Amino acid sequence: MTSASQHIPKVVFDNLEHLDNPFNMKVFDTSVFFQSGETIPSKSDTDYEFAWKFLYSYNGSSATFNSYRREIERILLWSWHIHESSVLDLKREDIEQYIAFCISPPKHWIGIKNVARFKLMNGERLQNPDWRPFVVSVKKDEARKGIKPSTKDYIFSQSGIQATFSILSSFFNFLIQEEICTMNPVALIRQKSKYMKKQQHKSPVRRVSNLQWEYVIETIEELANQAPEKYERSLFIINCLFTMYLRISELVADERSTPVMSDFRKDVDGNWWLHVTGKGNKSRIVTVSEDMLNSLKRYRCFLGQSPLPITDDMTPILPKIIGKGPVTSTRIVRSVVQDCFDIAYNKMKEHGLEEDAQELKVATVHWLRHTGISEDVKTRPREHVRDDAGHASMQTTDRYIESDLRERHASGKNKRSKNL
Fold first, then answer.
1. Which of 174, 321, 336, 419 has the fewest C-beta atoms under 10 angstroms from its C-beta?
2. Any domain includes 146
C-alpha cells in the first residue's frame, strides 16, 4: 500500500439531486480525487465518465442508485488509490484482490456511522470529514444498551459480497456494450463460491410471532381510540405493511411515484385493489381485504375525508403532519413502526411476557411484510400471494412455505430417548 493510499478517500459521486447529466458533459476530470504526490492512472478520466453514465442510468430509483453508487465508488477508489490503475485494466485476479480488500479494508476506510456525503458550508458543498466508503454499525438492541460501533467489528456480509459481484458484473457488461473494454473480469471468476459460506439450510424468514403481532395491533388500536391525533396514522401504516405486505418505499413518495388515495380502486366486480409502483419500477395490484378496506375507511374519516376515495382523489396516502404534500422520508415510517414495536414490547413486559417479546427489540419494518406473507401463504394459493407481494419468482414465495422454526421446534421438543 503506498503512502498516498493512507489518506481518507474522497467522495466520487454526489446524491442524485446534485448530480448533473453526464451525457450532456464533455470534460471529466479525476485530478480532484487525488492527493499531491499520488499517481493518477492514465485512463481514470474514462473510468469516471463511464461509471457516471452507468450510475445515471439508474436515476429512476434512489434506492437502486445508492446501492450501485456504493459498489462502483468503492471499486474506483480501490483501483485508483490501492491498485494504482484504471478500472479498465483490471483482470480476474485483480477483482479477487479487491474482494479480499472489501472483506478486510484498512481502518481509515471504515466509518462508524452513516453520514451525509457532503455538508453545506458558506454556501459550498464540502465533503463530510466523517464519510467513509465502508461503514460498521451495531444492532438496535446493542445501541440501546449504549454499545458503540467500532472499526474492529466491521464485517463484510455474505449479502454484501453477493451484491458486489452482481453490480460489478453489470458494470463491466455495460463497459463492454459501450466498447470501452473487451472482457468482464468478474464473470471470469469461477470460484466465487470460495467467498461464500455454504449453509445446509436456508436463512429463516425474519418475522414477528403471532403473539407479538397481536400485541402490536391490539395495543396501537387501543391507543388510536384514546388519542387518534397521535396514533391513527400509526395504526393505518402497520395495517398496510402487514395486511398488504407493502415495502416501506411503496408507502412514501419518491422520484418513481407519489402514492395517492385514488390508487385504491374498485373493479367492475366491486373488488378493491391497491395499485403500486414497486421494486424495479414495476407496477402491480395488491388485493385489499375487507379488514384493510375497513382500516382505510377509518383512516380517511380521521383525515376528514369520505370513507372511500373516488377516481380523481389525489390526496397523498401518507400526508405530512406539518406542512403540505406527501411524506417523502422512509425514516418517518420506520420511526412510527419502531414506536409501535416499543409500545407493544413494554405492554408484553407488563403482562409477564418479556421473554416472548424479545424479538420486538430487534424487529424492523420489513418484518411486518415477512409476517403478513408467512401467514397468508398458509391459507391462500401461493401464486396469489406471489402476485400481491410482487415477487419476481415463485421460488421467493416458496421461502415462506417452509415450516416455521417455532412450530418445527415445538413438534420435536417432546421427542423421547427412553421409555418409548
1. 419
2. no
Do 244 and 358 belong to one domain?
A: yes
End-to-end CA distance of the chain: 66
Residue 414 in domain: no
User: HSE-up of 207 (CA within 13 Å, CB side)?
Assistant: 22
Q: How far apart are CA 399 and CA 203, in angstroms?
A: 9
pLDDT digits (tens, 9 = 90+) for 358-397: 889 889 999 999 999 999 998 999 999 999 999 988 888 8
As to burial, measured by CB atoms within 10 angstroms (0-12 exposed, 13-18 middle, 19+ buried), residue 26 is exposed
Question: Under a CB-based contact definition with an 8 Å cutoff, are residues 273 and 285 in contact?
Answer: yes
pLDDT, tens only, 264-304: 999 999 999 999 998 777 899 999 999 999 999 999 999 99
CATH code, domain with 29: 1.10.150.130
pTM: 0.67
Angle at 191 between CA 186 and CA 194, to 5 degrees: 115
Taking each helix axis as running N to C, give the angle between helix 365-376 and helix 228-243, from 0 to 180 degrees, rounded to the nearest 10.
50
Give me the number of domains the chain comprises. 2
CA distance 303 to 305: 6
Asked if 52 and 16 count as a contact pair (C-beta separation under 8 A), the reply is no
Residue 395, in any domain of the structure = yes
- The answer to whether 131 touches 10, Cβ cutoff 8 Å, is no
DSSP type of residue 247: -
Q: Is the pLDDT of residue 220 over 60?
A: yes
Length of the chain: 420
